[in-house]
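re: ur question from earlier - yeah i can do the single chain one, its not a big deal. heres the input i used so u can compare w yours
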Amino acid sequence: MAVQAERRAFLATLPLWGGVLEAARRGLSEEQLAESARLEEAERQACHAVWADEYWAKLSGEDRVTARSRLQHIDDQPATAAAA
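and the output i got, formated as tokens:
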């Protein structure tokens, strides 16, 4: 997802925080906090849009699980496999 990539790029610009999110938030500016919140919400909305799409209702239970699993790991596939 584009918003996921945008959020990862934003997080990469922030200082290393050692895994303690609350500690990291204390060191951010108001603009950085607002951007972080905006990106989190955009990612949440994009995930919901995919999850709630009518497409999933057309699949049987097992096919739905398989399709969602493939979608979840789509970024794991090499570019050549995605083009096929």
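DSSP finds five helices and no strands in the chain. not sure if urs matches, ping me
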